[in-house]
Amino acid sequence: MSLSGKVAIVTGASRGIGRQVAIQLARSGIKVVVNYSSNQEKADEVVQIIETLGGEAIAVRGDVSKVSEVEALFSAALEQFGGIDILVNNAGAMFNAAIPDVTEEMFDRQFNINVKGTYFACQQAMKHMRKGGSIINLSTSVSGAMLPTYSVYAATKGAVEQLTRQLAKEFGTKDIIMNCIAPGQVSTELFLEGKSEELIDSYRRMNAFGRLGEPEDIANAIELLISDKARWITGQTIRVNGGFN
To answer: In what order do the strands lie in the sheet with 7-10?
Structure first.
């Protein structure tokens, strides 16, 4: 079955992986709700690209760490497109620090966006998503490594993987699949920020191909998992990382 005509919400879609996912889904004929938290200019740019491709999209501001704004995001999607078939929980925050330097604010902000935001977006999906839908949550392959300064971020993504596993059966009663994508190091603004070229090069050497992943690599995996060819896959975390370990 074609993906054309389906409706997707992509959180954190104004840049990085979310931006590429939104554009790639639109190329498949999916109508896209481009969620952003602060950068309207970048979100509008994504919408313009999609419209140039002949697709349909709207930009909707919303901080996923606030339940009322998650509810408003889903309401906007329903009002504009009349239904929801796909949710990509991509919005995320990452503040790396050694344990003596982690502040309460850093801890709370990451858990509120990465875990709380994912959970309550899934709650809205349970209420409003049509049968036959797909949910993709974003984790990280760092959860399977032991890298310094990543403790809080990895903990949030470990929680996301468990939410995916635990909620999949509930969503199965509505014929909705839920899976988790765990990217390796991807060349995005979020990942590159504050890292030296020496450190980035060391991450390149950690996978089988000697390069960082690109947003397209993750978007390709997401597109596969929302297709009908993946309807028997649910509750799983897929490591999309070029063999990183």
So the answer is: 57-61, 31-36, 7-10, 84-89, 129-138, 177-183, 237-240
Judge whether residue 194 has pLDDT over 90: no
CB-based burial of residue 236 (10 Å sphere; 0-12 exposed, 13-18 middle, 19+ buried)? middle
pTM value is: 0.95
**Contacting residues for 101 by C-beta, under 8 A, at least 6 apart:** none
Tokens matching residue 76: 């906007």
Structure tokens given for 235: 């509750």
CA end-to-end span of the chain, whole Å?
36
Amino acid at 188: T
Query: Could you read off the pLDDT of 110-128 as tens digits, one per residue?
Result: 999 999 999 999 999 999 9
- The set of catalytic residues is 153
Task: Tally Cβ neighbours within 10 Å of residue 45.
Answer: 16
Which pLDDT tens digit goes with each residue over 66-78? 999 999 999 999 9
Mean pLDDT of the chain: 95
C-alpha–C-alpha distance, residues 8 and 103, integer Å? 35
8 A C-beta contact, residue 29 and residue 81: no
